[in-house]
Design brief:
single chain; alpha/beta; Leucine Aminopeptidase, subunit E, domain 1; binds ligand AR6; 19% strand
């Protein structure tokens, strides 16, 4: 696993990877948070493209070109909205990561960067979300050598500290 997981603090729109993941909403037409930043940086062609994607349910993911981003692709994953933890949120969050990774494998993507899905506007408790993100990615990497590198991109200080503690020396610090 060592060398295949990286931790970065910063803006995901600037990441050089084959794909970056967006924390989208079900209509895939843009929003606030990281979704707003990705649409602003990728340009209006992204919204036009996403109109043809048919949306995505919580836990699902769809892929688009990266347009003006350094990344070749954007994978739009819809995380769960936190409703107290008894509405299947954990499994939906796991599926959002897993379906993003599956799309990456299908499209020959070797490097993929994830934001901390659902931990902003959707209100998922950050440490619980980080544990799900890390365990889902690690399990997938064990069985999928075609994915060479997963970059966890943290933006706020709290998520950065949580990921740093949970990953320990399993992650290289990059960026
Ligand atoms: N780069 C990396 N991470 C970022 C950036 C950025 N430029 N900006 C914010 N974050 P959120 P959600 C982090 O709210 O909770 C949208 O309106 C932020 O610190 O973007 O899944 C969608 O359209 C947080 O840790 O996504 C949906 O309606 C993480 O990104 C809804 O928000 C996720 O926060 C999705 O909510």
């Amino acid at each position: 696993m060592k060398g295949r997981i990286a931790l970065v603090k910063g803006d995901i729109t600037r990441i050089q990877a084959d794909a970056i993941v967006n924390a989208a909403n079900p209509n895939l037409l843009g929003g606030g948070g990281v979704d707003g930043a990705i649409h602003a940086a990728a340009g209006p062609e992204l919204r036009e493209y996403c109109r043809t994607c048919g949306g995505a349910r919580p836990g699902e993911a769809k892929i688009s070109p990266g347009f003006r981003l350094p990344a070749k692709y954007i994978i739009h994953a819809v995380g769960p909205r936190w409703q107290g933890g008894h509405r299947g949120e954990a499994e939906i969050l796991r599926q959002a990561y897993l379906n993003s990774l599956r799309l990456a494998s299908e499209h020959g993507i070797k490097t993929i960067a994830f934001p901390n899905i659902s931990t902003g506007i959707y209100g998922y408790p950050k440490e619980e979300a980080a544990r799900i993100a890390i365990s889902t990615v690690k399990e997938y990497l064990e069985n999928h050598p075609e994915i060479e590198r997963v970059i966890f991109v943290t933006y706020d200080d709290e998520n950065y500290r949580i990921y740093k503690r949970l990953l320990g020396d399993e992650a290289e610090e990059a960026g």
